[in-house]
Specification:
globular; Peptidase aspartic putative domain-containing protein; about 20% strand; DNA/RNA_pol_sf; about 950 residues
Length: about 950
């Protein structure tokens, strides 16, 4: 115990020093065991002493490796960490022979002096040792001449020296070797320098049989530092030696009717979900359920969104009794590239002889039609694992047969790597609310995926303008995989007939519907198709229906085109189109920028999507059928503008506006700035620091949009001069009523914001479903009512903790809490928040941030403090954000740190979003941290 406690602490990251400390701990433990002490209960003490003696960087990595585990770490876990750390340090810090030999000798001498439990051999503490190969002053395992020998010659030399085949130290056998290192190539108990590639198993037996040299001295626990260099070499050799097989199997997929299809499946325990391709779903005519599941892969890169799930049976093509019923199987157009990436040569692998392979054609590249993830992977495994020599594949027994994995002798013709890892994020109601209270980021910097980069390149190279300045764009389509669409005119005709029957029962609805499409045709946004052009295999017809919007005493309708309707090929137009990258700034940033102007106005772009033309090469994908009266002949039309409801429409609209700002920005700089930084979809919220500047912004904004074929309407301003006189009929400037601006109520007359909180749908017999509906209707983008609305988030968590069904009445206690909460909500409608944040003209401006936490939630708020030239101080809440604490109990100090982190991110986003520079910032975390 004295020797262990007095061992020298590690002062800097060093593989040798960490080995010394690790060996001292193991030696002390073995010594206590030899005295019959109950060391199996002493892990806490051992771990504490060892960690206290670690260098600061290693201690930091150790603490990070524990993550949020509440379990006390064991000595075994600490030793595993130290071995990994030692390998990393030695691999990253190659040593010269002389330096290593000296350090090794000094380390050996220190161990002999300090460790009273170690029985050293004669001469083990001598500073210099002669190399048995070249007679130099170093150990032979550091000798260049020794490394130049063949493996057989090295093994013979080690045998003659009576050294251990594992650590190359003197006078102990492999079975008694204290070193935790193993061969980096095959993990056998021998040194990497002694690895025989011809037969790893034979070498292991030879190592064991031929090195049983008995020695009465205790092992010192020191191992060769040279093995770290060989680890690097070995890993590199393995990585480039040949192709790697992934576990594939032939699987029979079948539907409820008994129709089956044999496909190649990838068995992947790194996938959180089960996947099949569109081809499988279509071939088996599997009923689909609507989902919206983002799929991410390596480095969190997005792999798209699964929009459908299916149920199917899987089984073995050779054993009809082996069947598994799979639900919630996600459908994607393509899963991965062909596996293997190229044909591989079947090696001479005796250990695989006679096995019934799950994929008899594993060596031939073929498409993967299914991925069996972790939830079914374990059900398929059977006892049985066969390993072969290095460079050969291993085999795992499964209920589908033996699956192969690992290296082959075939050299890879390219450096490409096939890696499949799928992480899914379910967004159905249940999964969404499970994540409702999890820790989350404020904002993330968008990283363009390859398909998003292709969207940008396509737009940049293909957009054009007609003689009137209007933009003409191409629809961004997927090319890999190819999404086949078939002419669906017959299905569209059936839906039109059904629509006409509904319209005939409602004369007002029929009139409004006809008026909408008549205007569509009159404005040139859709054109008739000649009879000789109707029949086209590449055409896609958009079914359409009415959507009602409450607008005063009269309901207005809008015709919506359904681009998600699937054709007989199993695909819809939205499956073909790319959604493009996110171009829109955060809503709260847009609103906060608007608050910096003393003179403000807002306006809408009229029919923004329909002012952008679609190239004639793509308009056959936007056909519709229509007739104003069932007695008339049905007419085919092409929609020649960007269509709301298509996957690419938001991207094309925003990208076109940004392109307009680039093209006309030199002529209209203030108008271009309004488009880039003060627009949210088709809403413009901008202004000026003076009335003259605001008028100039308005003039340039009208002019730059007109240059692209756009116009503005629905004007509102905090001063009547900013509403164009020639558009007085569009003014929404009222003394008492407010204007809905990005979901926030703005009263232009007194230039204030107000919240509009609707009453709860039900307060007497509430269920989880009705509560969820009410909570999700609360819209407070800037967090003005966060202290109140956080209760709704916490209440949702309580409902989930109670395990209630969707339509089960709430218990009396929860019902009472919810009723008290909803009864107070109307008071939020009395709040009045000044829009102008007194930024312009201030003598000084500061940002102040505050964060705090409780056991249920944490929050952060950012304020703008300004001082006028007359010394008047103004303080405005810019943004606040609240988060519910996770269900798993977390200490309040840690939650306070989460709040501080949230505050730091909010401040950074505010500074970046508002382009504030050289402004004093004060951040205060309330609490004990």
């Amino acid at each position: 115990m004295r020797a262990f406690l007095s061992s020298t602490p590690v002062t800097k990251p060093s593989g040798a020093e960490l080995k010394r400390l690790s060996s001292a701990a193991l030696q002390a433990r073995r010594s206590f065991e030899s005295f019959g002490r109950p060391v199996k209960h002493w892990d806490d003490w051992f771990v504490h002493v060892v960690v206290e003696k670690l260098d600061s960087s290693s201690r930091l990595l150790w603490e990070a490796s524990l993550q949020t585990s509440s379990e006390f770490p064991t000595l075994t876990k600490l030793q595993d960490f130290l071995q990994t750390r030692i390998r990393a340090l030695e691999a990253a810090t190659p040593r010269t022979v002389s330096t290593t030999a000296t350090a090794s000798a000094k380390s050996q001498e220190r161990k002999t002096k300090m460790n009273s439990l170690t029985t050293s051999t004669p001469g083990s503490s001598k500073r210099g040792r002669k190399c048995s190969v070249c007679q130099g002053n170093h150990l032979f395992n550091y000798c260049t001449q020794f490394k130049e020998l063949t493996v057989s010659q090295r093994r013979e030399h080690v045998k003659k020296q009576g050294a251990c085949f594992n650590c190359l130290k003197d006078k102990h056998s492999v079975s008694n070797c204290p070193s935790g290192f193993r061969c980096a190539r095959c993990q056998g108990k021998h040194h990497t320098l002694l690895h025989l590639a011809e037969s790893s198993s034979a070498m292991d037996s030879e190592t064991t049989a031929k090195t049983q040299i008995t020695d009465n001295s205790a092992a010192t626990g020191s191992t060769s530092t040279d093995s770290s260099v060989n680890v690097n070499v070995a890993v590199h050799a393995l990585a480039t030696k040949g192709a790697v097989l992934l576990s594939t199997a032939q699987v029979s997929c079948s539907n409820k009717q008994g129709d089956s299809l044999i496909v190649r499946a990838l068995l992947d325990c790194g996938s959180e979900a089960i996947f099949v391709t569109e081809r499988v779903a279509r071939a088996l005519r599997l009923p689909r359920g609507r989902v919206h599941v983002p799929v991410s892969g390596i480095q969190g890169a997005s792999a798209g969104v699964a929009s459908h799930s299916v149920e199917l049976m899987i089984g073995s093509p050779r054993d009809s009794s082996m069947r598994h019923h799979l639900t919630s199987v996600l459908v994607l157009p393509k899963l991965t590239s062909a596996l293997p990436s190229h044909a591989v040569r079947r090696g001479e692998w005796p250990h695989l002889t006679g096995l019934e392979l799950a994929d008899p054609h594993f060596d031939r590249p073929a498409s993967v039609e299914a991925v069996l993830g972790a939830d079914v992977y374990g059900l398929l495994l059977r006892e049985g694992l066969r390993r072969g020599p290095a460079g050969s594949s291993s085999a795992q027994a499964t209920s589908l047969g033996w699956v192969l994995m690992g290296h082959t002798s075939t050299t890879s013709p390219s450096p490409g790597i096939s890696a499949f890892h799928a992480m899914v994020s379910y967004t159905d109601v249940d999964r969404t609310l499970q994540r409702f209270w999890e820790l989350e980021e404020v904002l993330t910097e968008p990283i363009l995926r390859p398909e998003e980069q292709r969207c940008e390149r396509l737009f940049a190279t293909s957009h054009a303008r007609d003689p009137h300045g209007r933009y003409i764009v191409r629809l961004p389509k997927r090319t890999d995989p190819v999404v086949p669409l078939k002419n669906n005119r017959k299905e569209a005709l059936q839906q039109l007939v059904g629509l006409e029957r509904r319209l005939m029962r409602n004369a007002l609805l029929r009139e409004q519907y006809n008026t909408f499409l008549d205007e569509y045709h009159r404005l040139g946004h859709m054109v008739s198709i000649q009879a000789n052009e109707v029949h086209s295999e590449d055409a896609y017809y958009l079914p359409h229906h009415a959507v009602f919007k409450k607008s005063g005493p009269v309901d207005k309708i809008r015709v919506v085109f359904n681009a998600s309707h699937r054709t007989s090929s199993g695909y819809a137009l939205n499956d073909l189109l790319l959604p493009g990258p996110k171009l829109q700034s955060e809503l709260w940033i847009i609103l906060t920028r608007w608050r910096l102007y003393p003179y403000a106005f807002t306006s809408d772009i009229v029919k923004m999507f329909r002012q952008i033309l679609v190239s004639s090469e793509d308009t056959d994908l936007q056909r519709i059928l229509w007739r104003a009266d069932p007695a008339q002949e049905i007419q085919d039309y092409r929609l020649v503008t960007v269509v709301y409801g298509t996957a690419s429409a938001p991207y094309l609209a925003l990208r076109t506006l940004l392109q307009l700002a680039d093209d006309e920005g030199l002529k209209y700089p203030l108008g271009a700035n309004a488009i880039r930084n003060h627009s949210y979809v088709d809403d413009i919220l901008t202004g000026g620091h003076t009335l003259e500047q605001a008028l100039e912004v308005r003039r340039q904004l009208i002019a730059i949009l007109a240059a692209g074929g756009f116009s503005l309407s629905k004007w509102a301003a905090n001063t009547p001069q900013l509403c164009p006189d020639n558009e007085s009929h569009d003014k929404l400037f009222h003394d008492r009523e407010g204007v809905s601006t990005l979901g926030v109520l703005w009263r232009p007359a007194d230039d204030t914001f107000a919240l509009k909180v609707a009453s709860a749908t039900s307060t007497t017999s509430c269920t989880k479903r009705t509560v969820l509906s009410d909570v999700t209707r609360f819209f407070d983008p800037l967090g003005w009512a966060s202290p109140v609305l956080i209760f709704g988030k916490i209440f949702i968590q309580d409902l989930w903790m109670a395990g209630l069904d969707w339509d089960e009445p709430l218990p009396d206690q929860l019902q009472s809490s919810w009723t008290k909460f909803t009864d107070t909500l109307p008071e939020l409608n009395t709040l009045s928040i000044p829009r102008f944040a007194h930024f312009y003209g201030a003598e000084s401006v500061e940002l102040h941030g505050f964060s705090d936490a409780s056991c249920r939630a944490y929050a952060a708020a950012v304020y703008l403090r300004s001082t006028s030239s007359s010394g008047v101080i103004f303080t405005h809440l810019l943004v606040a954000k609240t988060k519910v604490a996770p269900v798993k109990q977390i200490s309040i100090p840690r939650l306070e740190l989460c709040g501080a982190l949230l505050l730091a991110k909010l401040i950074c986003c505010t500074l970046k979003g508002l382009a504030m520079e050289n402004i004093p910032i004060y951040a205060l975390g309330m609490g004990n941290v």
